[in-house]
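User: Hey, my collaborator sent me this sequence without any context and asked if I could get a structure. I don't really work with proteins. Can you help?
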Amino acid sequence: MATTSNDGRSATDERVPPPEDGDQPPAQRGRQETEEAVSIVLVGGGHVGRALAEMLAGDATVRHIDTMDSTADRTTDAGDRLGEETVFVPDITSLSELRAQSLDEEDLVVVLTGNDARTLLVTQLLRTKLGVTSVCAVVVDPRNADAFHIPGVDVVCTASVLADAVGTEHILERAIDTTDSGAG
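Assistant: No problem. I've predicted the 3D structure and written it out in structure-token form, which is a compact way to encode the shape of the chain:
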């Protein structure tokens, strides 16, 4: 969760220098000592993918690859002003469509199709057929997370993140309060 400092910038705006021992975050491993931006590709996600691309565009070079029918009405010229690009393909689960995007050259590919089976297929294609070294798979159902434990793949479960953000105790307390107030 981002916090805001006194000067109005969020904590995510702060630049942290790399550690002295040379360890770098996964998205920067193997980089030269240059100031080039991290390159991120978002695969799928419709409007959520688009919103994420807009949020990341200030700190990274971002491409959003989605199906032609998911976000076309809203994104045709927004990429130019945001510093990111949206590419529409007929089928994001097609190996030839993914191969044409040169994804193996990217620092990070985030797969967020909204359908765990589809996300798993794209994730496997990226790792096994296209040689993408760093993939983040966004999983909807936490029961499916184990299927994504593949070397080079980080898993983010939207349900778990939401539960952590909202706080289970808060939800339970509110549910109990609502039930008690309705009983009287």
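In plain terms: The two ends are 38 Å apart (CA to CA). You can pass these tokens on to your collaborator as they are.
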